Amino acid sequence: MTRWWPGIDSWINLSRVDPDAEVQGEICLDVQMLEDARGRCLRCHVLQARDLAPRDITGTSDPFARVFWGSQSLETSTIKKTRFPHWDEVLELREMPGAPAPLRVELWDWDMVGKNDFLGMVEFPPQVLQQNAPSGWFRLLPFPRAEEDSGGTLGALRLKVRLLEDRILPSRYYQPLTELLMESVLGPAEEDAASPLAVLEELTLGDCRQDLATKLVKLFLGQGQAGPLLDYLTRREVTRTTDPNTLFRSNSLASKAMEQFMKLVGMPYLHEVLKPVINRVFEEKKYMELDPCKMDLGRTRRISFKGAPSEEHVRDASLGLLTGYLGPIVEAIVGSVGRCPLAMRLAFKQLHQCVEEHFPQAEHEDVKYLAISGFLFLRFFAPAILTPKLFDLRDQHADPQTSRSLLLLAKAVQSIGNLGQQLGQGKELWMAPLHPFLLQSISRVRHFLDQLVDVDEEEEAGGPARALVAPSVIVREGYLLKRKEEPASLATRFAFKKRYFWLSGETLSYSKSPEWQMRSSVPVSHIRAVERVDEGAFQLPHVMQVVTQDAAGALHTTYLQCKNVNELNQWLSALRKASAPNPDKLAACHPGAFRSSRWTCCLQAERSAAGCSRTHSAVTLGDWSDPLDPDAEIQMVYRRLLLGRDQLRMKFQEDPNTDSSPEADAEKSSGATEGACPDALARPREAAARLLEVLADLDRAHEEFQQREQQKAALGPLGH
């Protein structure tokens, strides 16, 4: 079941922001309004806060909360050196005579020297306190200012936000549709018209292709079939292309799928190739400009000249700086054949063969190179150079001067990727001083592309677990808090001990410190699930669980706490990558913990009770991306296919001029269409019928699931 909420689509005026007053994070409160013989009392339970702004040089804060109600105020204790404080303190304030007052809770960073630093605030008007006392997590806000709305003088930003509520069924319901999708890539791509992939390609237009391509690539990667998917889509595109100069230049499903595949599989490779030079550009902040219309001679003080500065001086100095950066970039790229992921090389080899078969003429000799360089240089390397933050190469966006330098470098790399075909053409003739360097690089790039596709491995492209994690290489290490196996009598906060962890493709090991000789370890092959843990399980944030199985078949759970959400995501990613090939993954587990003789998540009293939440068993392909979630991805594909169901029926099953009986279908197949092969007519009909049947089964499953949920809700807690 899918429900769309209206959301917003409007222009919002930008406001001025004081960089020193920016706030972030949330606070958890439980407020009650009580009344006794002495009058009314406000009880504010300040539980905890998370992801507060770091105000100290250590990257943490010393937060305390200050509660205001009317003319009264109270403070909590100060928690030192944390951005995730836990107070669990109750502050009570008595109502004073006068008009009803709002409740305001402020967070401050305590400083021994100087004034305290503001961390954020929340405020609740009197009517909210009277009608529905606040309880839960609340986003911290800055102090309101009179000039908050500038009336559009700073510009405006148009936002379009929609909320999608989707029901994800258990995996078994999606298996038939998954099998149909996998079968789609095995048939002749050029003639396909009724498979799920063919229907999706025909239906999906514009911006939707990006999302669909990402979902399909993740889904097929999880099944180890990304190579056949990309081959299927590229063959369909190549077959439809008559002018080789336009091949893969549009945002087709094939182009978007290959682009997303490179981002998912090739991010570590991209970082290894580009990050050293990108860091140099950011750190050195050299002024570079070749366009006379954009030169600022007043900024040439950054370059050492003899005599008065001129455009020629700036151009010559900029040319030297640009080639000084481009040289290492080209060297890193052409020398990276062995570091390029096998899955990418195999995908490029398939693409190379497909294009060469379709355009065998001598005048199209460059097309097979341009097809690969168009993806690798124009859609991977050049965009990463232009906007490093979007590819996780830098934490922050570049300043204007550095951004211009990156643009010049990206243009040069793009020209190299085009194999010099457009040099000297167009409006950017001011790039001419770079042309000799670019032309010298092109022959090296051709040789690099030949080497890249010279791979003879029989392994299928799209086996991410085999390609991404080496057995003996340490892929992640650092301090984590580890919970003891059975903390019988210790308080929760003492049940976690600080340990240093190492993760390789073979073992997850830990000790008291990096130098400690004694290590404990768990074979990665024993891991059966790696999942997040609800904060309520231990009243702690950023906790994950690693479920392992010993030789006797017994399951053991280790709880690990990370210092922040980014570290949690990175460890989840690394552990799931390392354990991806493991058999017998758990389909479900408990997102809570077994404490006080019951599970905190589902309240079941048996420790051995079946898990109440499905697991994310497939591999995470990069620390920057979300884990693969095959059920969510196939649910999105199912929603897309529903949009084309009526069109599919009309095209292959409904014909107003003929009888819809099997006998009539057989007659039409045998002779109604002159010169047509009966099999050619029957195959699309059969494929369409199978797809429509699978969609109908999923419809029924969603309806039954919804009915069961409604029945449970009607019964209430006692009905369980």
Automatic annotation (TrEMBL):
UniProt keyword annotations, A-Z: GTPase activation, Metal-binding, Repeat, Zinc, Zinc-finger
Residue span, Ras-GAP domain: 208-418
Pfam family for this entry, one: BTK
Location of region: Disordered: 653-682
Domain C2 as annotated: residue spans: 23-138
Keyword Metal-binding: yes
Domain of life according to the entry: Eukaryota
Domain annotation PH: ranges: 473-580
Zinc recorded as keyword: yes
Gene Ontology MF term list: GTPase activator activity; zinc ion binding
Gene Ontology BP annotations: cellular response to calcium ion; intracellular signal transduction; negative regulation of Ras protein signal transduction
Protein name: RasGAP-activating-like protein 1 isoform X5
Organism: Zalophus californianus
Organism classification: Eukaryota, Metazoa, Chordata, Craniata, Vertebrata
